[in-house]
Amino acid sequence: MSAPTGExxxxxxxxxxxxxxxxxxxxxxxxxxxxxxxxxxxxWLELRRLMRARRWLVAWAAWTTLVTALCGLVVLSTVTLGxxxxxxxxxxxxxxxxxxxLSFGLLVxxxxxxxxxxxxxxxxxxxxxxxxxLSPAEIAVGKLLAAWCGTLALLAGGLPSxxxxxxxxxxxxxxLLVIVLLxxxxxxxxxxxxxxxxxxxxxxxxxxxxxxxxxxxxxxVSPLLVPLSSALLTTTETVTYVEAENFDPETGxxxxxxxxxxxxxxxxxxxxxxxxxxxxxxxxxxxxxLQPGLEPDAGSDVLRGxxxxxxxxxxxxxxxxxxxxxxDDLVRAEERAALPPVWPWGxxxxxxxxxxxxxxxxRRLRTPVGRLPVGQRIA
Amino acid sequence: xxxxGDDARAPGGTAxxxxxxxxxxxxxxxxxxxxxxxxxxxxxxVPAVVDMSLVAPAGQVTALVGPNGSGKTxxxxxxxxxxTxxxxxxxxxxxxxxxxDAAVRARLGWMPxxxxxxxxxxxxxxxxxxxxxxxxxxxxxxRRVRELLHQVRLADLAGAPARVLSRGQKQRxxxxxxxxxxxxxxxxxxxxxxxxxxSRVELRHVLRALAEAGRCVLVSSHVLSELDELADSAVYVxxxxxVTPEALSAAHARxxxxxxxxxxxxxxxxxxARGLDTVDGPAGALDVALPDEQTAADLLxxxxxxxxxxxHFAPTAGRIEQTYLxxxxxxxxxxxx
Lengths: 379, 337
Description:
heterodimer, A: 379 residues, mainly alpha, 12 helices, disordered N terminus, B: 337 residues, six-stranded mixed sheet, four-stranded antiparallel sheet
């Protein structure tokens, strides 16, 4: 690097770059404008930053290996334990893989976006973007899409196992597609919440911690409140018991049934079931389409099992306990199956969460800034 | 907090001239410049900018000079449209940054005091992202990026990730980034910090060339000695206020000139005979306070005419530095903080 000496010559390095005119906008930038070019620019930038981070690639490779190995172990143990590979193995493998992928996604997704806004602000890169012609919504949505793509890469890492599970049978194509879609949507929600928190919380570390807390509350704490609150939330109801009086000596079947009524305090999970809806586990499991023809092997269907637990909670107390007939369980199962699906509620809640988070981010990105939170820098 | 007056938002109210809200007469500048009238801004209870007005015309480099914490950066953030002024009006290239942000941003290049770069992205990718974000047509953008890389001497490092750049190289990348959309107005906050002497000279040439090409350049710096050659005019800020013309003339009255000759005793006697107080400078030099250049020229003629031998007769510091020291005192205003 040498300092120029002497007179300023006609050095091309010093002359300003050639000007070419183009149409420049007038007026203001609509806050919520979403142009493909704008969103694409931000998403391209953020994805590139993500892909260049070596530790991210290493983590992804490790994750893919891990989940594939896990899938192999499930198949291997089925064979070793003397069983043959049946469609039930496929159903089990599918369910386990989905739960593992979802769990890992919920562990990673909040952290992926939780420093997106406040971290960039701390590094001094946010204001330079805000100063461009990008609208706040374009920056917010671009960042959200890029972070979502990052979490979808985790889902992609689980795809080999899901395909193997599908190939083993026991899973309908509809189920495969619906579940993959819903896992993807769930991860988008957690990512959006992390991004929203990164806009609200000034310190990046606080943003990460808070995102994990929120994700954990949505996925685990909220649904746990349903059984935990059942001891407190009870009402006195008339419960009808149908008991066998006489039995046929030959078949052992009851020939006479007697009804007995009693006033009992019963837990009312049907009043709190909506707390389950926040959990991606419940939404995904509940949405898993029933698979006609595979029902006898329902024991290996962990998703269906999880879905049944949540639907059981929705039904509330079983006020008719028919011990006399052997169809009581079937009646209850029919009632469960007849319940309207829970995933529309889940998706509606998710839409609200994503929209709310995005709105928070957009509000944070609006310029010029009026009131400035303590500790937040502009540039 | 009261925003800029309603008439600033009135449809069709694009004329930069006229009377600003609050009844302050707005000085007309050529379109393309920066015009700030009676701007104020506090952070909570802490006032950062109390009352600032300035005009930075197109085709000139205007220096913004003041001690740390005097409100330079806050003012630049309001000019750039990142902060809402508590009161007063700002016009950049004829548009209000608060309401016509797209118009301003498409025409304003901004370089913050701390330039953040995305560590993982290469130098050329930085410029490409900003060209796209500023909606520079792709055909123009690729040529401009190439030219700018040469202009700030980063062409060799085009493919290097930003994390390997030195502070000075990052600063140069920051300048190229600010220029990527060929702005009419440039707002540069301490652009010379972290630059080696050679790069500072280059920066000066780049900014001078931009001004000569009709751009408006507003630059803050605390390297006062270099501003004389760079800036056409200077705006001084102290304690959140731009310095008034009266205070400026008072400051000039205190500017010091340094005299030196082969016979210091004779020189001291000659100055004493003319009723001038002197302060001893280094190596037998004498410093004298003179109100303006006219008086200095008269004194020089007088001394030489009466046979006093002189080897040195010059301001103790550069024009801008001297005014600054005259305003703040020799400690550079540190005493008040």
